[in-house]
Amino acid sequence: MIRIAAVGDIHMGSDSQGLLRPAFDTLPDCADVLLLAGDLTRHGTPQEARVVAREVEGLGVPVVAVLGNHDHHDERPDEVTAILQDAGARVLEGQATVVSVGEARVGVAGTKGFGGGFVGRSAGEFGEPLMKEFVRYSRRLADGLRAALERLEAEGCDVRVALTHFSPVPETLAGEPLEIYPFLGSYLLAEAIDTAGADLAVHGHAHAGTEHGMTSGGVRVRNVAQPVIGRAFHVYHVPVPERLTTG
Amino acid sequence: MTHPGDRGASGAPGAQHLDYRVAHLRDRLAGGPLGELGVRVEARGDAVLVTGCVPSTRCRDDIRRIVREELAGLVVHCDLVVTDTSSPDHAEDLT
């Protein structure tokens, strides 16, 4: 069994140092890895990123993160990423990383993802250049997630997790106004997850949403936005499939 | 029938209607120093309801101050909760 801790939308600012560290210091007792599902800062400034970096540095469990829309607001996502990486976090955008837990290999594929909406109520790649780019951007990030999950499959990971900020499914948005669903997620993420396969999908972004959901392909989805889970993090116990033997 | 620029019964210009004041408050919360998109602001009759979960007491106090400034003269009901930062007391088993 793999113990996956996850939280998103911690929105740390200059006054946030130390808020989460006491809880994070308990992670080695209850989790094998910590996933951060974006919106780690309020405005995406390097100063705020350093607050997050100090909060997660040297935790005793691997830290894997994606950025959120707030982390892009200051238009310096590369600096934010570098600061978090200097603190030991693995920051993913269309990338994958593998965490070893005993003999098991846990693969995490990550992207911020983007909006566009869900099947039957989604934006189309049509009309003004801005509108077309909106949908293309969402598609590019979803394609990056699919490719990263497929790489993890090729590498023989025992457990694969899709980590995003935007939601892949509408179920975990329940509680948010229906009118803003297209700004909260995209079915393209769910399609990528179902195409490549995963054991769990974790996202944030929807503060008024619901924790539990599932893709059409049957992959469990968890909204771990901190206002949703009401804790410093939640922990999910994911079984490790028995290795197939040949011969 | 009303037309753009009509004034309400109070004599306030159209831009001072409650709906627009709520919209401007939301814009200020999102675009200002707080960067706060997670707070819900809704007109309820003649009053305004402000709800949501915020990361710190300082953030909650800042939001309350901005709400008071933007919605001066209106009845406002604030129910902002500060996020719990304690460790979870259980895990979810996904077997």
Protein architecture, described:
The complex is a heterodimer of chains A (247) and B (95). By secondary structure, chain A is an alpha/beta fold. Chain A has one domain: Metallo-dependent phosphatases (Purple Acid Phosphatase, chain A, domain 2, 4-Layer Sandwich), CATH 3.60.21.10. In chain A, 28% of the residues lie in helices and 23% in strands. Chain A is built from seven helices and 13 strands. Chain A has helices at residues 21-24, 27-30, 46-56, 77-86, 129-154, 187-196, 226-229, and strands spanning 2-7, 33-37, 63-66, 90-91, 95-101, 104-111, 117-118, 121-122, 159-164, 200-203, 212-214, 220-223, 234-238. Chain A has a six-stranded mixed sheet, covered by helices on one side. A five-stranded mixed sheet of chain A has the order 4-3-2-1-13, covered by helices on one side. In chain A, strands 7-8 form a two-stranded antiparallel sheet. In chain A, helix 3 (46-56) runs parallel beside helix 4 (77-86) and helix 5 packs parallel to helix 6. Chain A is globular. The relative contact order of chain A is 0.18. The mean pLDDT of chain A is 96. Chain B has a three-stranded mixed sheet with strand order 1-2-3, with helices on one face. In chain B, strand 2 (47-54), helix 2 and strand 3 form a beta-alpha-beta unit. In chain B, 21% of the residues are buried. Chain B starts with 17 loop residues before the first helix and ends with a strand. In chain B, helix 1 packs antiparallel against helix 2. Chain B has a domain at 38-85: Alpha-Beta Plaits. Chain B has two helices and four strands, in the order H-E-E-H-E-E. The chains are: A alpha/beta (247), B alpha+beta (95). At the A-B interface, helix 7 and strand 13 of A face strand 4 of B.
